[in-house]
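Practice problem 4.
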């Protein structure tokens, strides 16, 4: 089972990347500021930086296909339980960004503040 943002009135049809980008444009975001792909890149980057999840779990959550054909043929795990556990952490992180709370201290040579538990 995959979960995605759906079209209004069509709950079983995922919104296209272009539809989301058009929505962002209507909210005042130009494509040089934010796109659907940038949301996905941000999620991949931050979830990997949190260090709590296997990169394969993150890639599966983003519905990325492994470019290595041999690996793709044998690595078919869905990581459902891990992905379900990942999403509340991601949601909490986004809530802290929205609310202007402490998200991450950036200190040269040291990572700090990435534990989202």
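Answer key:
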């Amino acid at each position: 089972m995959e979960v995605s943002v759906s079209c209004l009135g069509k709950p079983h049809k995922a919104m296209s990347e272009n539809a989301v980008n058009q929505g962002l444009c209507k909210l005042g975001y130009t494509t040089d500021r934010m796109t659907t792909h940038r949301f996905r890149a941000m999620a991949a980057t931050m979830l990997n930086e949190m260090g709590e999840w296997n990169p394969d779990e993150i890639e599966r959550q983003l519905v990325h296909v492994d470019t290595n054909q041999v690996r793709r043929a044998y690595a078919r795990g869905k990581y459902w339980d891990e992905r379900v556990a990942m999403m509340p952490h991601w949601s909490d992180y986004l809530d802290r960004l929205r609310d202007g709370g402490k998200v991450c201290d950036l200190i040269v040579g040291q990572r700090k503040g990435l534990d989202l538990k």
